[in-house]
Automatic annotation (TrEMBL):
Transmembrane segments: none annotated. Residues 29-88 form the Cupin type-2 domain. InterPro entries: Bacilysin_H2HPP_isomerase, Cupin_2, KdgF, RmlC-like_jellyroll, RmlC_Cupin_sf. It comes from the Bacteria. This is Cupin domain-containing protein.
Length: 104
């Protein structure tokens, strides 16, 4: 369970902070050490990720795309995805509907 507004470790070298959600939309900041991975997973939520800092390789449904500071990427509902930080990086992830799994 995530505590709103508090940093927690998600995977080795990856920490996140979930912001107060709305009724159908939520955001979280995710910080990565260089080389850290966000493990492959999927969820029914649509996701947009904005790269605040660094460079991240996204693997979405078997296709790799690299985004850098100031760029965004869209992850469709139920698409398997994971990431690798190519350098120290920070993402702002936005989800709709709310990721109840992160709040319970």
């Amino acid at each position: 369970m995530s505590k709103i507004g508090q940093w927690e470790y998600a995977e080795p070298g990856v920490r996140r902070k979930v912001f107060q959600p709305g009724t159908g939309l939520m955001m979280m900041e995710v910080q990565f050490e260089k080389g850290a991975e966000g493990y492959e997973h999927s969820h029914l939520h649509e996701q947009m990720s904005y790269c605040i800092k660094g460079k991240i390789a996204f693997r979405i449904a078997g296709k790799e795309t690299i985004i850098s500071e100031g760029e965004t990427i869209y992850i469709p509902s139920n698409a398997k995805h994971g990431v690798t930080a190519l350098e120290e990086s920070t993402l702002l992830d936005t989800f709709t509907p709310i990721r109840e799994d992160l709040l319970k």
